[in-house]
Fold:
Amino acid sequence: MTLHTGKQIIYGEKIFAGAVVFQESVECQKDIDSSRGETSAIRALDVGSLHMIPHGSRPATAILNAGTATSYTDVDFGSYCPIGVRALLLKSYLVWTGNSAVDAVSGRLRKNGNTTTDIDQVNVIYIGYTDLAVTMEVMMEMTVECDTNGVVEYLVSTGAALSLNIIGYYT
Structure:
């Protein structure tokens, strides 16, 4: 078994005055157990200062609730961030309901207007395991570049569903 350990480092000033603001540099890694077929791709973003949305001001239900689009489709978070936003901190929840003919499913997110389909240039939520016959779920927080109005695009594998909610934004 190969287990890669994970860490998250946030450099710079931390301000706690009604909102949490972290300065620009963020490094992230994820635990991966390659013996179970788990994989992950991590891409560094330099997107500015993070502004957490207070719990009471966040949407009560997911902005995207169990989305099943298999081609890139817009999701608008603009009601919860200012014009000129650079990226969003999203809570994502990918659900796979089972089909033993499939070994991997994914949800993908990219900046609105981006046309790339290269998985190394988009955010990917991935469930990979031999014969995904049972229901599997992955919940994670991720930073996703957006257009200046807070819009991203998503798609999922056939049979999967993705829910997204905003917990913060970068300016």
Notes: Residues 5 and 96 are 26 Å apart (CA to CA).
